[in-house]
Design brief:
- The protein is an alpha+beta fold.
- It folds into 2 domains: about 130 residues, Impact, N-terminal domain (Ribosomal Protein S5, domain 2, 2-Layer Sandwich); about 55 residues, Alpha-Beta Plaits, CATH 3.30.70.240.
- About 30% of the residues lie in helices and about 35% in strands.
- It contains 5 helices and 10 strands; from the N terminus they run βββαββαβαββαββα.
- Strands 2-3-6-4-5 form a 5-stranded antiparallel beta sheet, with helices on both faces.
- Strand 2 and strand 3 form a beta hairpin.
- Helix 2 runs parallel beside helix 3.
Length: about 210
């Protein structure tokens, strides 16, 4: 319809649901790959540590992650493989599929035959691809939150607005001075804040 406004594409991002696994074999070496969603760098590092502990007998545990709707937070590791032969190809697959908020870990069990630089690049790239292809890819909408306070007397006006705009209530406390934390799609938040600011007594933090 002509009067509909299409949200900016930056408000949308693709990630994966849950953990998925792939296995790639080449010249007796076995590459076991895992992809899973994460929200922060600390969470990604914890995932890496989990696989490092679980596969402590593996020759290498290489990884890459990407975060943020702008896909501008990322890091990768070759974990002892020749520079650029593991972490970079893994990250390249995250880019190829347009994903973010994910970490991919590839565990290598060495089979005794060296693969060479080009062989390693192909192996890590294919292992990462297989994990992603086994995953359910989701298109998500960036979320935004707002926390604010208001007097009890403004309760009805606030709740009417919250219900009308179909906001998700994350936290709420009701007393003489009430507080709420709400969430909605990021592109809807500016208009909601504007309406909320017109309710008598509502105190909003500056953006």
């Amino acid at each position: 319809m002509a009067n509909q406004t299409t949200p900016a594409m930056s408000d949308f991002f693709k990630t994966v649901r849950g953990v998925s696994q792939g296995i790639y074999k080449e010249k007796m070496s076995k590459f076991i790959s895992f992809v899973q969603p994460v929200q922060t760098a600390d969470e990604a590092r914890e995932v890496v540590k989990k696989y490092q502990n679980k596969y402590h007998d593996a020759r290498h545990v290489c990884w890459a992650y990407m975060l943020g709707t702008a896909r501008d937070q990322y890091l990768s590791s070759d974990n002892g493989e020749p520079s650029g032969t593991a972490g970079k190809p893994i990250l390249g697959q995250i880019n190829s599929f347009g994903l973010t908020n994910v970490v991919i870990v590839v565990v290598r069990y060495f089979g005794g035959i060296k693969l060479g630089t080009s062989g390693l690049i192909v192996a890590y790239r294919e292992a990462a691809r297989l994990a992603i292809e086994a995953a359910e890819v989701l298109e998500c909408h960036e979320q935004a939150q707002v926390s604010f306070t208001f007097p009890y007397l403004a309760m009805n006006d606030v709740m009417r607005l919250v219900k009308r705009e179909d906001m998700r209530v994350l936290e709420q406390a009701f007393d003489n001075v009430c507080s709420m934390t709400l969430e909605c799609d990021a592109d809807r938040m500016p208009a909601f804040r504007s309406q909320l600011g017109k309710v008598d007594g509502v105190s909003l933090p500056e953006t």
